[in-house]
Amino acid sequence: MHQDLSGILPVLPTPFTKEGGIDVPAMRRIVAFALEAGVDGVVFPGFASEVETLSASERETLLQVCVEEVGRAVPIVAGASASTVEEVVGYGRQALARGVRHLMIQPPKAVGSSPEAVAAFMGEVSRGLPEALIILQNAPAPRGSDLSPETILDVVGQVPAIAYVKEETLPAGPAISRLVEGAPAHLAGVIGGGGSRYVLDEYARGACAAMPALEIAAQHVALDRAFRSGDKALAREIYVRTLPLLTLQAVYRMRLTKHVLMRRGVCENTIVRAPTPELDAQAVADIDACLAEIDALALPAAVQVPTKIAGALG
Fold first, then answer.
1. Is residue 311 part of a domain?
2. H or E segment at 180?
3. Is residue 146 part of a domain?
4. ∠ at Cα 283 (266, 293), nearest 5°?
5. Do the beta carbons of residue 253 and residue 275 sit within 8 Å?
6. What's the Cα-to-Cα distance from 88 to each of 38, 99, 189, 311, rounded to whole Å?
7. Is residue 17 part of a domain?
8. Crossing angle for the helix pair 217-229 and 232-263, nearest 10 degrees?
9. Which CATH number does the domain housing residue 174 bear?
10. Cα–Cα distances in Å, from 8 out to 197, 203, 224, 270?
11. Which among 37, 69, 89, 297 is least surrounded, fewest beta carbons within 10 Å?
12. What is the DSSP letter of 215?
């Protein structure tokens, strides 16, 4: 199978207005920011999009915005996870109707973790979405089912519609190695998760792509390009420089992402719906210091941090 997903595929955050609704103009700026950073694709919705707090109509509206703004510039991966086959198929058909074929689906925990049960669920989904290229998301417990590599390979072998696996259990590295080594011919690749906090190890083990949050997309793109061109020293320099911020991002999650995007003139606020720690003055100072250190690293001329995007605030 042709590998059409590779490189940096950030999960886009969902911006909210002060009144609590979704902010469509800000979503357009978010997509523009991602594209100007040179990303290889975008993902919406995902965990980092606060997907569990969005209504079906909000998901559909924002996915439509993504499709309109991206056009054919890069692939779009649409999250379609839900608790039942019927819901997954419904979300998948919304995406397919908009020309989005890559669907990321996490088997619900209620299905269990046996290869037979997971394969039955994913097989039923694939039959309901025959045009889809499925990305099987394997998230760690307690949010995900923490499937073993052996289980995933068994499931992939039974469901040819699964074109990719997003592996983000911990430690992800050994699991990625086992998946790459045992992959059937129809599996196009394994994608790393975990906010790209382990991206160099994932790439070294054969991962074809990474799905970080969006806030430092340009640096992640530069790291990806350096690694693929053989400049492992530059890739590591960028990686080491990003780690302090990514460590904080593991705690403050979407609120940190939106804070950085505010600094970039993309978002108007850091409002979140998902339970997320507040940013006090010391946390903000720490984040801003990490961001300044990241920005101080000169990137290759072909990859620069967007400083002003189309429709930017102010």
1. no
2. helix 172-182
3. yes
4. 65
5. no
6. 30, 17, 22, 34
7. yes
8. 170
9. 3.20.20.70
10. 13, 11, 7, 24
11. 297
12. T
Integer Cα distance of 271 and 267 in angstroms: 10
Q: List the structure tokens of 234.
A: 């530059």
Distances (CA, A) of 309 to 28, 89, 96, 123: 10, 35, 29, 42
Answer yes or no: is 76 within a domain. Answer: yes
In the chain, the number of structural domains is 1
Residue 302 CA to residue 226 CA, distance in Å, equals 11
Asked if 6 and 203 touch (Cβ cutoff 8 Å), the reply is no
Element (H, E) at 237: helix 232-263
Taking alpha carbons only, the member of 119, 54, 141, 140 closest to residue 91 is 54
Amino acid at 293: E
Q: Where does 73-169 show beta strands of DSSP type E?
A: 76-79, 102-105, 133-138, 162-167
Range of the domain at 222: 7-295
Which tokens is 186 given? 């129809």
pLDDT digit string (tens) for the chain, length 314 residues: 445 899 999 999 999 999 999 999 999 999 999 999 999 999 999 999 999 999 999 999 999 999 999 999 999 999 999 999 999 999 999 999 999 999 999 999 999 999 999 999 999 999 999 999 999 999 998 888 999 999 999 999 999 999 999 999 999 999 999 999 999 999 999 999 999 999 999 999 999 999 999 999 999 999 999 999 999 999 999 999 999 999 999 999 999 999 999 999 999 999 999 999 999 999 999 999 999 999 999 887 766 555 443 334 43
State the CB neighbour count (10 A cutoff) for residue 64: 15
CB 39 within 8 A of CB 12: no
What is the SS3 assignment for 200?
A: helix
